[in-house]
Structures are given as C-alpha cells and as structure tokens.
Amino acid sequence: MEKKVFARTKGLTEVPMRYCPGCGHGVIHRLVGEAMVELGIRERTIGVAPVGCSVFADEYFNCDMIQPAHGRGPAVATGMKRVRPDCIVFSYQGDGDLASIGMAETIHSAARGENITIIFVNNAIFGMTGGQMAPTTLPGMRSTTSPFGRDTKVAGNPIRICELLSALQGPVYLERVAVNTPANVVKAKKSVKKAFQTQIDGLGFSLVEILSQCPTDWAMTPLQSIARIKDEMIPYYPLGVFKSPEEKK
Are 14 and 45 spatial neighbours (Cβ–Cβ below 8 Å)? Predict the structure, then answer.
C-alpha cells in the first residue's frame, strides 16, 4: 500500500502560483502556510500583502488577507492587530516595498514594538516593477536603473535591515535566513514559526529576513541565482539571529 509522504499544506489555496521559474517566493509561501497550520493559527490569521511580487499573495495564503498601498504593510498590520488583538497578523513584503517606500512604516512599527510579524523577502531588487535597483541591491550589482552596477559613491551602500532594526529597543525577534539550499530552507521554517510564536506569546515585534533568488530580474538561470545567494548575498547579509525572545526573559 502506497503511503503519501508529501502534500500541499492547508495553509495554501489550490490556486496555481504565477511566480517566475526558480523564484523563492513559492518556497517561502509554503513555509508560512505550514507554520500557520502547525501552530493552529490559520483560522485567526490575517495576512497583509502590499505592492510588489507579494501583491499576488492574497490568492495563495489560505487565510484572511488585505492588500494595502505600496510600503504600508506594517502600518496596516498595526491597525489590524490593535483592532483585533486576538488575531495573528503578518505582513509579507519584498525589499523594495519594505526598505524603500515603506522604510518609515517598518522602522516606526519596530520602534513601537508592535505585536506583529513581518516576513521580509530580500532578493536585492525591485522584482515586479521592472528590476530596478533597490535599497538592498549589492555593490556592483546590475539592475535596470544601474546597468553598470550599483555605484556606492552615488547610491550609497545597501541597507542591512536586521542590523538597522537591532539598534532599536522595540523589536523582540530578528533573524536573517535563506532559501538557497534544503538545509537553509529547514532553518528558515524554524525561524518563521518562531516569529509567529513570538506574536502568539504577546512578546512584540518580530521580523524574519529571507534571502531569496530572482532569476528573471537577475538575468540568471535558477542555478546561477542560487549560487549568487551563497557567493554574494550571504557574505554581505550574514545569516543569523540579531535579536531573540530569550533576551527579554
């Protein structure tokens, strides 16, 4: 008798995903979906998906979803959580959305220690809007608005979000993970679950930064994009825990 060992999580809908081949969003969606189910919070979870590649997320997460304006995810998540503190609220955002137009909302929600969870997908580029340079684009990395590579003398250095937020007193849990290898995917899932658990326990603001590949806008094959995470992104954005709930105890 055959035994089924792998199946679609009930945390995701049956809608086929429209992400580009090799994109990390599909993997990250599954991790979030599995976390909601395993923690028993799916029925009371509200997801916030602003503009960017994450704009499609309301079709895929099997929970209540709301779509705010570009960059306003943390502000809307704050409002939802304050009105419905019994719900689990997460904002799913890309780096252009969170670290550019939404930087103020990110910093101030973290500074206030809002009891929300942010899933921050860092692929170092504006993915949906045409592959422009983002606040996280690596030095020398090409984009449609930096065809000769990011010039740090003109554009400054990429912003390390976890390091930036770790200087604030408000955040409780900050961790950077990646989804470029099976081992890193396993670690990423543990981090996502811990972020949700931090909110369940009422401890405060949590953010998981996930280094992810974007083969299309990087003009690479999926395998080349995975190699870039290892060879270029992780050296600049080191993986690890920057703030932990254990520090609050």
Answer: no
Greatest Cα-to-Cα distance within the chain, rounded to the nearest angstrom: 64
Q: What is the DSSP letter of 172?
A: S
Q: Backbone phi, then psi, for 210, in 5-degree steps?
A: -120, 115
> 62 Cβ partners below 8 Å, 6+ apart?
10, 11, 12, 13, 33, 36, 42
pLDDT of residue 114 exceeding 80, the answer is yes
Q: What is the pTM of this model?
A: 0.95
- Report DSSP state, residue 25: H
CA dist 145 and 127 (Å) reads: 13
Per the CB < 8 A criterion, the answer to whether 165 and 114 are in contact is no
The answer to whether 50 and 67 have CB atoms below 8 angstroms apart is yes
Structural domains in the chain, sorted by start: 25-244 (3.40.50.970)
For residue 48, what are the CA distances in angstroms to 10, 56, 69? Answer: 18, 11, 10
CB 185 within 8 A of CB 201: no
